[in-house]
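Example record

One chain of 193 residues, shown exactly as stored in the release files.
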Amino acid sequence: MAGLVLVLAACGGADSDDTPTGDGGDGATTTQPATEQPATTSSGDGAEGSGPSTATVTLGAETYTFSTEGAVVAQCLTNLFGIFSVQLPMASGGDGGVSIVALREGTDPDVIGEVNAIEISVGDEDWVADEADFLFEQSEVLEPGMSQVDSVEIDGRTVRGTATFFRQNSVFTGEVETQTGTFEATCGEERTS
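Predicted structure tokens for this chain:
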């Protein structure tokens, strides 16, 4: 997923990051599959961001924080070919990262080959909320509903929602560990490196 987003950015999104195009509104929108794919790669809310991009993910009683502050490699784009795309390392030099793909309203998942998804890495553990994850084809223990984004809302430069995650290593033990959680990310200055 990270490779696809960076390839898309290299193919046409990098030069338009600082040129927002407004859609006339900055209210909240809930993404739903539609029939057309937006062609823009810039901000859909018409406002430029500044400062670091941040994200938080809460799983059970644990909240994990991610940020571009001090990051060598990170990405936060509010509209990359119809995707709100976030890839941030863990804050304060922690071992981990978050990847969020949130389809903007009007983006057809069949056209872009992506669905709403979020994955976090914390140390040696990966938690995945992605109904199209490759492990569904390779595992007999994963079932529909065990890994998905349950709700997503894009409000200007912020994306938030709820998701059902599975612990990736648990798939190989024969008993899948799942957990529901919430996520929120805000793009400061848009970046692709």
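Notes: Residues 160 and 184 are 4 Å apart (CA to CA).
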